[in-house]
Input
Amino acid sequence: MGVNISNKTVSTDRIDCTGSLQVTLALSASPDISSHPTDIVLILDRSGSMAGSPLANLKKGAKKFIDIIDEATDGSQDGNIGSGSRIGIVSFSDTATQNTQLITSVAALKTAVDSLSAGGSTNHADAFTKATELFNPQSTNARVMVMFTDGKTTAGPNPNPIAAAARAAGIIIYCIGLVGADGIDVSVLNEWATDPDTSHVAVTPDDAQLEDLFADLAANISKPGATNIVINEVVTPNFIITGVQTPSKGIASLLTSTALRWTIDELGTTANEGASLSFFVKHVTGTSGTEPVNQSITYTDTEHNQVVFPAPTVEVDCGIVIEPEACPEPIDITVGECQDSIEYEIGDAYLESLGRILQLDVNIRNVCPNRRVALGIILTEVDPQGNEYPRGMKTITVPAHHFPTCRDVLVRCIKFVLPEDLDVSGGSPEAMCNSRNFRARVIAHNIDTDFQCCGSVI
Output
């Protein structure tokens, strides 16, 4: 069957500027179907959300799958699944239907696919049950389920135990997911599929891709297992590789801080087999945005399997970075041979980031007991023409006092920072020797009150 599925996933879709994440590569391969007869059940979702183009593209994909298996088993598309392999069709909505048994007639299989119509809810449990019942436990054929669905379970019991029992009985489960109108839970597909999850699950948001997904899976199922696998992974320069775990099969080695190689002698040559490798990368540049994790990844094997890995991205948040002071311009100085000392005039130096701090005190008159006060101070700067420019606003909650009578409350040390590059008072913004003109406005009122509007409850 060759390489069935290749996948690449990341552990999170968002990190901070110096954050790390785990990257997982996964492969699954199986023996040649012509020499290892296989019984395959296509489990097809025909719930109401599949109406229209999703169902039409599903039918194209399923029939393409059947044609590829037909040719792979006996060398030609002669309308008959050969070499002892068979295909069966199960479809489901509110309940599941065995549209065919495990048969070899391509025409009968396609007729069953074409007969499907959309409607009803989604009962995955009954679908797995009806599919399992098609297999003969006494058969020596390999057993494969291909579950296609576009949504979450909305009818029937929990399908997880039924899928788990099928896997325990030696049935290989692949899942193809379409992100439909009701959404899809990829973690559930991973739960149903044969391990490693990442190499037995494929998901697309576009139903137009279904034909290609089914075709790719069928083409890979029909190839022999893979030997002498070499995978070269290079991450983008914005990341470095900080650690490589031992793969489930083969050997992984770090080539540079941004490159690694994974080699596997053989995979899936005698039975369905998966392999996975996880490694850790860290973001090392100060750039924010959506960034691809890998710069390139290549795959080769002796059987010339065509393997394409996804290219996951991660959202990097470096926050807002402001650098108010540039690095000083360097001054080149040369000390000649045999000189013990040198004097060199390097010019003027200026104070950096000039500014002032204005500190205000406000005396709030006649504040009554047991009432908090909301205090606001608005500061502006006045240019020579009398125009005002905002320089800040402070809002402060003044705690209530508990003296028996009203009294004044002094609020001290209200600070405003006034950089010199904002100077509009008429002087040079590069010096602090000129005067600057400001206006402060104060607003204060009680927060607590015993007033109640008619009909209201406070």
